[in-house]
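For reproducibility, we list the full input for the adenosine monophosphate complex.
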Amino acid sequence: MFNNNLCILCGSLFVGFAVIFVVYKLLFMRKHSSGDNSTLLGSQYLQAIFGGGQSLGTFGSMAMADWQRKPELPTEIQGQGKGYVSAPDMRNNSLTYPDTKYVKDLRNPIYRAISRQNGEINRMSKEQMKAKLAELSLNTSGIGEILRTRLKTHYKNHLMGQDGLETPCTQRNYDYLCVIDFEATCEEPTPIDYIQEIIEFPIVLVNTKTMKIEDKFDSFIRPELNPRLSTFCKDLTSITQKQVDRADLFPVVLSRVHEWMKTKALGKEHSFIIVTDGPWDMNMYLNVQCKLSQVRYPSYARQWINLCKTFSNFYKTKRMCLRNMLAALEMGFDGRPHRGIDDAMNIANIAIRLMEDGCELEVNDRLSQ
Ligand code: AMP
Ligand code: MG
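The corresponding predicted structure, in tokenized form, follows.
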């Protein structure tokens, strides 16, 4: 009898607390979504309920602002009128691999041969590796880890090729890489709740078969929230006030990007994937800008190749910024750092070097909300 009463008491307390928790969270969300008919994105509800947040610098510390509400998109921005061009789709992108790709028969003696070869390379000095690479007419520049990976990959692919086994190959996955590096408004120090707007949209097109840069797109964008660039921003990016004053707003530039992609048959005859040097370009700059400008986030930009991850995983180095990746490869920076098109060209050069060294570029990052 006493036990039954105890159970009923505990059950009632649990239900009571659950009801109080849900009511409290609903009130909390309403407080942050001022405006009656505002609609929060699903993930923002989850964020509000579970208290999650993005650690994205200024973005992470922002209170929920107007642009964070799901925008009511004007139809012309959805690519149905006024000359706006809809985004290329990904139907022809072969983003899945053949099932056989990673099926590895470890009983095959070839893997023992590869392992023996790797052991030998591990015992080589930097000078010995350079001499061996030169003998094989391969690139000899880079820090020790890079030379070691280059040599191991060469022998591994050679042995596997001899045995008729499939070797890693980016061009099987994508015809083109679209290397993107946004520049955005900024201030130093960064004011609380500062929202960065994209001011330069560059794309460098790399053909994975020829491993060459085939074309470029570059456009400045006029910011609306902070139309005057700070001295810090102008010094950092070398973008002038005149260049952004004369530029179009983001939706117009995005539609020109899509037009350009269509002339290259990207997403139609040719598969492509975006490449960046970190998670921020898509997760923060493009994501925030699409909400600000009330345009739909392009589906092709929901996943991409984060080259910093690819680089450190392939060469077995620590995570590096663009400048350090170039330094590790003993490649100089062409152009001016923090100018979008120059950054994108240099990222493209690293992607090409990775492919030449036998690295298979594949999707390794995606939109986090
Ligand atoms: P990046 O691709 O490294 O040139 O950086 C992209 C954007 O990040 C720049 O356009 C700036 O808005 C911002 N940014 C880069 N470096 C800094 C910095 N040191 N301080 C403040 N903002 C920066
Ligand atoms: Mg940049």
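The longest helix spans residues 2-32. The radius of gyration is 25 Å. Both points were considered when choosing residues for closer inspection.
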